[in-house]
Amino acid sequence: MKNYFKFDELGTNYRREIIGGLTTFLSMAYILVLNPITLSLQTVEGLDDSLRMNYDAVFVATALAAAIGTLTMGLLAKYPIALAPGMGLNAFFAYSVILGMGIPWQNALAGVLCSGLIFILLTLSGIREKIINSIPAELKIAVGAGIGLFITFVGLQNAKIIVDNEATLVGLGNLTDGNVLLAVVGIVITVILMTRGIKGGIFYGMLITAVIGMFAGVVEVPKQIVGAVPSIAPTFGAALDPIFNSPAELFTLQMLVVILTFLFVDFFDTAGTLVAVAQQAGLMKGDKLPRTGKALLADSTATVFGAILGTSTTTSYVESTAGVAAGARTGFASVVTAVLFLLSLFFFPVLGVITAPVTAPALIIVGVLMVSVIGKIDWKKFEIAVPAFFTIIFMPLTYSIATGIGIGFIFYPITMLIKGRGKEIHPIMYAFFVIFVLYFIFIL
């Protein structure tokens, strides 16, 4: 085992790898709660049950997808990188695709499956790198920052810290309400933990907030800690039904935009995370990342398995940097994280009682982390600032990640051409321009 993961060469040992794997798990364990809440649209009132995914089944799918993806990354690519359903992508899946576009969740899962299969083909062919390189760095950064704002807005709304306001569209909620006050307390606690550099601060913040909520009588006390694993039957294989029974529903411009958005966001989540973790761990060879193909294959394969199990796009998590900071250097840490995700299946009774006010702080802080890269955009160049800003701001304002991406990608070639920098625009960006113009004309 030590020789397979090259412990001696990378200056690590079992203790460091186990601690690193545990730290990574604690840093991203919030997804076990947030993903089922998001995909089941639990915080949306008055919604037909047929539009909601089964909470219990999504929990199992989340844990299994994370375990499979992380284990594949550890054994195949040998990187200390964990995977799980992505926060930005699950928000797009639930709020934009299901609620906004009215697409059944079964069809949305089929879209995720298709994006994963395309991802695998692009990875094996080498085309993926060409597509990524065609999109300017500023827009890549803007997409991540925009998703961060969108996630924060969803968190604030779920906690009812931000509510509807007839005069101003949105306004501050009732801070004297028990649930709202609990969310505010949770935000303060999580901010303190993260500011102090506590590993797994987001997860610990959720735990502390839940305990406070129990003492205050706002959160239900769990009746048991360990229980039977819930059934995955309601979601397992649902992604295959539209493909075999109603394929015509998948071959539409609307679904093309959905699939491309799943694919696009996963592209840059993965690329950014791989580089960030590898740089922090000192695994880069010059400016290149060793075993890139295997890492991308592990990520794309995880998306396919996750869709079949019943969850949105599974992607590499930047929280893996927490495990690297704790000492992880090899794929053995990922194996440890994968085992912990499997064990979490038996603690469903505890995780199942965590409510929106408890999870809202995690959403908000994840948004803060994602927006932190915004300083890398050259705001002094107006032709760059406009499409980047539009990409970021229109995601939360329109409640749609796809709309934000589309508006940014439309304005980028416009501003660059007017500035006389048309030669810097890759032909693929013109293709994106046409696709999104058609999307706004015929879909919205």
From TrEMBL:
It is a multi-pass membrane protein. The chain crosses the membrane at residues 18-37, 57-76, 83-103, 109-127, 139-158, 178-195, 202-219, 256-277, 330-348, 354-374, 386-413, 425-443. Its main location: membrane. It is found in: Cell membrane. GO terms for molecular function: purine nucleobase transmembrane transporter activity. Keywords: Cell membrane, Membrane, Transmembrane, Transmembrane helix, Transport. GO terms for cellular component: plasma membrane. InterPro entries: Azg-like, Azg-like_bact_archaea, NCS2. It comes from the Bacteria. Belongs to the nucleobase:cation symporter-2 (NCS2) (TC 2.A.40) family. Azg-like subfamily. This is Hypoxanthine/guanine permease. The gene is pbuG.
